[in-house]
Amino acid sequence: MALDSRFDCECLIVGGGFTGLAAAAALTLKGHKIIVCEKDASLGGLAGGFDVGGERLEKFYHHWFVSDVHVTDLAKTIGKEDRIITRPTRTGMYYAGQFYRLSSPADLLRFTPIPLLDRIRTGLVTLAVRRIKDWKSLETVTARDWLIKLFGRKAYGVIWEPLLLGKFGKYAETISAVWFWNKLALRGGSRSKGGGEALSYYRGGFAQFADDVGNYVTKGGSSVRTGVAVSRISPGEGGGVNVETDGGMIRARTALVTTSLPLAAEILHEKRSSVLQRESQANPVSGKRVPRDRD
After folding, report:
1. Alpha helix stretches (DSSP H) within the chain
2. Under 8 Å CB-to-CB from 107, ≥6 apart: which residues?
3. Positive or negative CA dihedral for 141, 143, 144, 147?
4. Confidence of residue 102 (pLDDT cuts 50, 70, 90)
5. Residue 159 in contact with residue 103, Cβ under 8 Å?
6. At what angle do helices 177-189 and 143-151 cross, to 10 degrees?
7. How far apart are CA 8 and CA 222, in angstroms?
8. Is 243 within 8 Å of 230 (Cβ atoms)?
9. Whole-angstrom distance, CA of residue 295 vs CA of residue 293
């Protein structure tokens, strides 16, 4: 179907992070004309990169699990599946002045900072957690309470508490058990029959992955515009939406906003307080806003 002459594109996507890029690739595959606007000079969002001495480094360390099929499917869609690298993990822990490897069941059995029975319990519980299907029952439980109940106080204090504190800081005790369950389930799905874990990476990093998705979208006849900030989206006369950017007005049949909720509120000119209130409902354990996971 031909694009209505009133519009510059069928869909304008706000944000060139991986949510926006994945949507852009899916729409491009279907033959739609879209425009992606990213306010930064490069694509990728939190998974983007920066230059240091001529080398491109990631803003944050990223990998994905072999069970994360959607990321693999995105690489397949853009014809870059050959850039996926899968490697066995070398997970470990530094405890009381010593390094311990924790990549396999055998490594766990050799982890002497916790008693032998706790090591066996940790391994069995980790396997059992993968079978939990009713994650909604965990929504009102904190990760701290849930982990102590499952693994015991000693294992929690040595293994899990430092991880929660390192990732979430002052929010550690308010994180929902659902988040931790999901992490354990994902990691479990990346393990072989022998218990070894493998993780996947993109050759060149996620910043390169973002650029490759952007190139795919552009070659498909759409437009990816970096350094272009969207300030307002409002209903257009006779249908569609008007998108105000610092590069001019864009008329679109529809728009997809992939930024954080506070930024989306500003773009849509909603009451910021009401948006933040809805966002806090994602953490029913404490009612407080918590930082989003970047992995």
Report:
1. 18-29, 69-77, 105-109, 116-129, 143-151, 153-155, 161-168, 177-189, 205-219, 261-268, 272-280
2. 100, 101
3. positive
4. confident
5. no
6. 60
7. 11
8. yes
9. 6
Condensed to tens digits (0 to 9), the pLDDT of residues 253-269 reads 999 999 988 899 899 88
Q: How many CB atoms lie within 10 A of CB 30?
A: 10
The DSSP H or E segment spanning 36 is: strand 34-38
Read off the tokens for 82.
């050959």
**CA distances, 18 to each of 22, 24, 41, 47, 214 (Å):** 6, 9, 15, 8, 10
pLDDT tens readout for residues 181-193: 988 876 665 555 5
Calculate the dihedral angle through the C-alpha atoms of 63, 281, 39, 8, rounding to the nearest 10 degrees: 110
Residues 6+ apart with CB under 8 A from 265: 271, 272, 274, 275, 276
- Secondary structure of residue 23 in the 3-state scheme: helix
Q: Which residue type sits at 127?
A: L
Global pTM value: 0.76
Place of tokens 């853009």: 78
Identity at 145, one-letter amino acid code: D
Structural domains in the chain, sorted by start: 9-85+201-259 (3.50.50.60), 90-196 (1.10.3110), 261-295 (no CATH)
Kindly tell me the sign of the dihedral angle through the C-alpha atoms of 284, 289, 292, 293: negative
Can you spell out the DSSP letters for 136-182? GGGTTSBHHHHHHHHH-HHHIIIIIHHHHHHHHGGGGGG-BHHHHHH
What is the residue whose two structure tokens read 């929010």?
A: 171
* CA dist 111 → 39, 59, 68, 102 (Å): 47, 32, 29, 8
